[in-house]
């Protein structure tokens, strides 16, 4: 969540967490939960939802940033 907020700003992450909660996903899990709803914030069905306070967001760059950063972290973590 910190990485995504750093990249997109915290407001869009809060929106995605609110959507995750509304649609029965866990707002405290990134992969497959909040990540999915952040990606959906480019769809008017979701960014016009009353729980969304900060509007439309194209999240592809943010999702790729989180994945790449965590992947790099994992590589360094297992290097000896």
Supply the key terms.
single chain, 80 residues, mainly alpha, 5 helices, elongated
Structure summary:
The protein has 80 residues and is mostly helical. It has five helices and no strands.
- Give the % helix: 55-70%
Radius of gyration: 13 Å
Number of strands: 0
β-sheet strand percentage: under 5%
Q: Regions with pLDDT < 50 over 5+ consecutive residues?
A: none
Query: Number of DSSP helices?
Result: 5
Briefly note the structural class of the backbone: mainly alpha
Average of per-residue pLDDT values: 97
Question: What features would you describe in this structure?
Answer:
By secondary structure, the protein is mostly helical. It contains five helices and no strands. It is elongated. The N and C termini lie far apart (28 Å).
